[in-house]
Amino acid sequence: MNAIDKAKKLLDGGKTLAVVGKATLVFEGKGIKDLCSLSKEQLCGAAVADKIVGRAAALLLADGGAAEVYAATLSEGGKKVLEDRGIAYAYGTLTKEIVNRAGDGPCPMEVLSRGVENGEELREKIKAWFDEKERRSI
After folding, report:
1. Three-state SS at 31
2. Pick from 40, 54, 55, 73: CA 20 to 30 A from residue 100's CA?
3. pTM (2 d.p.)
4. d(Cα 98, Cα 77) in Å, to the nearest integer?
5. Per-residue DSSP letters for 69-100?
6. Which residue ranges make up each domain of the chain?
7. pLDDT per position as a tens digit, 87-134
């Protein structure tokens, strides 16, 4: 079994993100936090399977040097990033954009990634967004 097929198989049973590279890593969290927690060393050359890959996730995967990506759901913006960066990809469902959890608008990460082409810049924007969200909940 090749690396991307192994990563896809690891998504079974409620897993949301699987990375098969120097190490095999599996996550169950919602959203982009688990992907943000990965280092370039963990992503470089890896096969990655994710339940949802929007433009933001695709930029982080490209910045990390992922070699191959499978998305159960892929946004058109994410697809363009993967294509532009020459990353092999496959998907189950292609959608115009990723929607937020309430289903009434775009995912905040899709919005944050608009106009951003650099993964490091995006990481900073995502961190600031989560920091602000945490401050508002206190």
Report:
1. coil
2. 40
3. 0.94
4. 9
5. EEEEEEEHHHHHHHHHTT-EEEEEEEESSPBP
6. 3-137
7. 999 999 999 999 999 999 999 999 999 999 998 999 999 999 999 988
